[in-house]
Design a protein that fits this description.
There is one protein chain. The chain has 5 helices and 5 strands. The protein has a 5-stranded mixed beta sheet with strand order 3-2-4-1-5, with helices on one face.
């Protein structure tokens, strides 16, 4: 009897996690087989999006991208993180993969984790751009998140290099995101630490 009750509870929890996908992101329960282990709640709506790249793990198919997401998650956990650091990953297949997600504080941008989400493109974008499918998926995802009040209406978007000592998201991707709505120029970055 208890086994049936417990199994029913687990199935309900997995369905709740899967149904919390607000903007078509692939839930972690689907690509990793379990929910995120991070516990600290992220206050919503979020006012800052940090665009990153993983350097490792360009992928083109659903199977490849799920494998890369799992490899990143495993690497982070071996490094002592509670779970994957990024909030979301974007694959070359045009899918967005849930990491820490909307409900939990990630570990992606020192000093800004508790007030931002990281959208990290899988691959190295120092010299080339992500696939057109990945770029469109990210734009659609951000528009949906804003419409669903997960992001503030006037949210700001920055490249990781604007707030950390890093090359991320790569020169090519950094140049691309300067043309996106909500992009914030370097001169105004100081205000991010005070909002």
């Amino acid at each position: 009897m208890w086994a049936i009750v417990i199994a029913s509870f687990v199935v309900k929890m997995l369905l709740v996690e899967a149904n919390e996908s607000k903007c078509g992101e692939v839930p972690m329960t689907q690509w990793a087989g379990q929910a995120c282990l991070r516990q600290t709640p992220l206050p919503l709506p979020v006012g800052l999006v940090v665009i990153q790249h993983t350097v490792y793990g360009a992928c083109a198919s659903d199977e490849e991208c799920a494998a890369v997401a799992n490899a990143i998650r495993n690497y982070h956990m071996k490094q002592g993180y509670d779970d994957i650091g990024q909030s979301f990953l974007v694959g070359g297949n045009g899918e967005v993969y849930e990491g820490a997600g909307w409900r939990r504080v990630g570990a992606h941008t020192r000093g800004l984790n508790n007030r931002s989400v990281a959208l990290s493109f899988m691959g190295d974008f120092r010299e080339t751009l992500p696939t057109p499918q990945a770029l469109q998926a990210a734009k659609d995802f951000l528009a949906c998140a804003s419409e669903n009040k997960l992001l503030t209406e006037d949210y700001r978007l920055v490249g990781h290099r604007q707030v950390s000592q890093t090359e991320s998201p790569g020169a090519a991707l950094q140049k691309e995101i300067t043309t996106w709505p909500h992009w914030l120029e370097m001169a105004n970055i100081v205000s991010l630490f005070n909002y």
